[in-house]
Amino acid sequence: MDNGQEHTNGIKAPSCDLDPASATVIAEICQRFDNDKHRMLDILRAVQDRYRWIAPATMNKIAEATDLTRIEVEGVASFYSFLSLTPKGRVTIRLCDDIVDRYSDLKGVTAAFEEVLGIKVGETSADGAFSLEVTPCIGMCDQAPAAMINDIVLTGLTPETARSAAEALQSGTAPETLVSDRFNHLSPHERALRQVDNNIRHAGECLLGPVPEDAGLVKALSMTPVQIVNQVEASGLRGCGGAGFTTGRKWRFAASETAEKHFIICNADEGEPGTFKDRVLLTERPHLLIEGMTIAARAVGAKEGILYLRGEYVYLRELIEQVLEDRRSRGLLGSDIMGKKGFTFDIRLQLGAGAYICGEEGALISSCEGLSGEPKTRPPFPVNRGYLGYPTVVNNVETFCHAARILDKGAAWFHDMGTDGSHGTKLFSVSGDCLNPGIYELPYGHTMWELLEIVGGEDATAVQVGGPSGAMIARDSFHRKLTFDDLATGGAIIVFNGERNILEIVEYYMSFFVHESCGYCTPCRVGNVFLQKAIQKFQKGLANPEDIDYLKDLSGTIIETSRCGLGMTSPNPILSTLQNFPLVYSAVVKPSQDGIRATFDIQSAIESARKIAKRRSYIFDRDFSQ
Question: Quick one: pLDDT at residue 607?
Fold first, then answer.
């Protein structure tokens, strides 16, 4: 292919010109997905997996097959972090760079890989065998440090185990052999469990205790769609991803839309650092999830569904595909489900490719449509006009699982658990400085103190509730309750003891938002860079009292003018710590001698934003017209 350069996996890597054999392979990949531009992410992932990069000539061929321009293809290929426009090694090692991993000796783990492989983070070995990278949270915070090695996950790493893994890989050991020398003989479920410990610390009544198979679906088929919606709405079930919108109302809105098609999408892209509850449900309750999606389809009249699985959970792909195929073979998906004439519904698995923003439902829908994961302007809302312009219900894994249990046990059963306005149980993903990190299924209404006692985190001085987009609270707020109307969370509970530096945590979270911004709107793209640099100023002891007002004012501007939820919540690490840990800031500020706040170079400040977002600013770029 092209110049005949051979890549490390023995497959020639395309660059300038495609040889006939490679052109045939690319054409076959496109044909596998019906040359459908809406399956662009699937096409690009398949090419990436085969050739380890998306070459220019490849993009030309894909554009030709899908009736798009080269620029449109490259726009998608350049958006997702797991796709690359330059060659990657045969083995790509992605070290999780979450704050919990950093506090669990990620530095030592990184040094071990670098020393053995002879490369630094961000480099590919000269022979093309290895690439070493860092990546944001991969959903393994309860067993950090963790890493992805191609599609294999390693957890609970130490410098010693990292060294052993690197030496084995360097000697030619396949990544899956690091998990088990019988890996190919294990079932998909066994493979998943060998890689990741689900750490279920407390199984509650709804989801992680005994669950009869498809009992909810059986009852749903004896009900009318309106009765199903009424049951879900009467239960008080609210979306479990954090926003908390009433699930029954969402289904009712979608069902009331007159349209040729309706769609059901499961958001399994839990990219919020510190959140890993859906990972457990996908492993232990995949049938319950599909059952819930099928019930939703019955309720709103959908015939097609999409399960959007975050790229970091690729290790669960085979398990989910096996579950889908099993249900098709037993008449639980497909035509005339369970003998119900005319009830047709099936689901396809859509794998993401490393983009936090795709957890936002509009960006997720864009990604499913084969586009960059940029949020959509609202209104219209997805229930009115979502995937491909049709009414679409988007709920997360936990919500669909709850819906299936509600149809089985009844609305009153679910409604009676929890508290007013927060009914049922909640899966809490607990990590950080506690004795027993893992998953806890508890009724809504527990105080933070109670939860900390359960998990062994009584010496906490700070808790991040809801991940970076949530709030960091201090000990004087530990009496507050974990409910939608008090301490709302999609599930993440990150515990920090008194040894941790609050400003260091805030700076990390701001760097995360800078990296994960889609770059569409200036307030988010540029404003978060300014916030991060301002926090760095506090860390260096260079801030003055006026900088606190600057943080508040800029945060307000970003929240009010950003297009989607990322920008509307990205200042939260700063705002919540300013409110709950004011002494942390006041202790490091120094009054300016002349009362004038120090200036900074705006061009330098936004340079990192330019590189990350691959966009330039009409307002701040002097040479934009050149």
Answer: 60
The pairing of strands 200-202 and 152-154 is unpaired
Angle at 468 between CA 233 and CA 435, to 5 degrees: 90
Q: Is residue 197 part of a domain?
A: no
Whether 338 and 466 map to the same domain: the answer is no
Mean pLDDT of the chain: 91
| Together in a domain, 366 and 380 | yes
| 8 A C-beta contact, residue 66 and residue 43 | yes
| 197 burial via Cβ count (<10 Å: 0-12, 13-18, 19+) | middle
CA dihedral defined by 465, 557, 533, 96, rounded to 10 degrees?
40
Count how many domains the chain has. Answer: 5
Query: Same structural domain for residues 118 and 246?
Result: no
Phi, psi of 267 (to 5 degrees): -85, 95
Do residues 591 and 544 lie in contact, with contact meaning Cβ atoms separated by under 8 Å? yes
Q: Where does the pLDDT of residue 517 fall: very low under 50, low under 70, confident under 90, or very high at 90 and above?
A: confident
Cβ 548 vs Cβ 594: under 8 Å: no
Q: Is 255 left (phi over 0), alpha (psi -120 to 50) or beta?
A: alpha
Residue 535: CATH number of its domain: 1.20.1440.230
Residue-wise pLDDT tens digits, 132-155: 999 999 999 999 999 999 999 999
Are 521 and 561 in contact by the 8 Å Cβ rule? The answer is yes
3-state secondary structure of 442: strand
> Coil, helix or strand for 200?
strand
Choose among 129, 109, 26, 42: nearest CA to 82.
42
Q: Are residues 114 and 142 in the same domain?
A: yes
Residue ending a domain, among 64, 88, 112, is 88
The answer to whether position 183 is within a domain reads no
pLDDT reported for residue 611? 57
Give 425's strand partners: 443
What would the DSSP string read from start to end of 463-475? EEESSTTSEEEEG
Q: Are 455 and 434 spatial neighbours (Cβ–Cβ below 8 Å)? A: yes
Cβ partners under 8 Å of residue 447, min gap 6:
478, 479, 480, 481, 482
Q: Kind of pairing, strands 130-135 and 91-96?
A: parallel
* 353: phi then psi, degrees, rounded to nearest 5: -145, 35
- One-letter amino acid of 433: D
| pTM recorded for the entire structure | 0.91
Q: Residues 445-498: pLDDT tens digits?
A: 999 999 999 999 999 999 999 999 999 999 999 999 999 999 999 899 999 999
pLDDT at 593 over 70: no
- Residue 320 CA to residue 307 CA, distance in Å, equals 9
Q: Is 568 exposed, middle or buried (0-12, 13-18, 19+ CB in 10 A)?
A: middle
Structural tokens at position 124: 């590919």
Residues 20-37: b if buried by 16+ CB within 10 A, e if exposed: eebbebbbebbeebeeeb
Whether residue 31 is found in the same domain as residue 132:
no
Q: What is the DSSP string of 71-89?
A: HHHHHHHTTSTTS-SS---
